[in-house]
Amino acid sequence: MAINDGIYEIDADLQKSTKDFKQIIKTNPHATLLTEIKFSSPSLGKIRTPEDPVSIACQMIAGGSKALSVLTQPYLFNGSPEYFMNVRQMVDVPMLMKDIMIDKVQIDAAKKIGADYMLLIQSLFDQKFLSNVDEFIDYGHRQGLEVLLEVHTKQEFQNALSTKADLIGINNRNLDTLEIDLKTTERILSGFEKTRLILSESGIDTPKDIQYLKKCGADAFLIGSSIMKSDNIEEQVKKLVNTY
Question: Against a cut of 0.85, is the pTM above it?
Answer without folding.
Answer: yes
